[in-house]
Every structure is written in structure tokens, then in C-alpha cells.
């Protein structure tokens, strides 16, 4: 299981790849909706890539509940640890 730091790097890199930004621009306090106006297709692409990278089933609700990148990382970290 990846550490939270490894998970954070994977999430930030995936988001930056999908949005076409630099990884340094995607911080834990970044709001994808407010800062980038992310749409549902981009969100689904991020989810699909993270599923492949992490070998983890990610529910749509996991992605839509996250208010910031850090919140998404925390949700995925909990999912990997088997917590709801």
C-alpha cells in the first residue's frame, strides 16, 4: 500500500496530466472546480487513470465529494486502508 505522500504524488501527477498543467500547480489546497473549472469528463478521466495506477476501484462519489486535492487524497487513502 502506498504511503500518503506517494499517493499524493500519484494524484497530483494524474490531475496535472489530465488538465495539462504543471504538477507544482496542483497543491493539496487546490479546488479543481473553483481553480480549474473541471468538468465531469475530466473528472472521470482522472478517476479512470487513478484506478489503473492504484489498482483500486474508485466510486464516482469519491471523486465528486472531494472539495480539494488534499481531500481527494484523504478519501483515497482511507479507501486503500479499507476504511469507509
Descriptive overview:
This protein is an all-alpha fold and 84 residues long. It has one domain: Non-ribosomal Peptide Synthetase Peptidyl Carrier Protein, Chain A (Orthogonal Bundle), CATH 1.10.1200.10. The protein is 64% helix and 0% strand. It has five helices and no strands. It has helices spanning 4-19, 32-36, 40-54, 60-65, 69-80. Helix 1 packs across helix 3 (40-54) and helix 1 packs across helix 5 (69-80). The chain starts with a helix and ends with a helix.
Which characteristics define this entry?
5 helices, mainly alpha, 84 residues
Helical percent range? Answer: 55-70%
Radius of gyration: 11 Å
Runs in which pLDDT lies below 50 for 5 or more consecutive residues are none
Q: Would you tell me the overall average pLDDT?
A: 91
Measured between the Cα atoms of the first and last residue, the distance is 16 Å
Tell me about the largest β-sheet.
none
- Summed up, the helix count is 5
CATH class: Mainly Alpha
CATH homologous superfamily identity: ACP-like
Care to count the β-strands? 0
Query: Structural class, judged by helices and strands?
Result: mainly alpha
CATH fold call? Non-ribosomal Peptide Synthetase Peptidyl Carrier Protein, Chain A
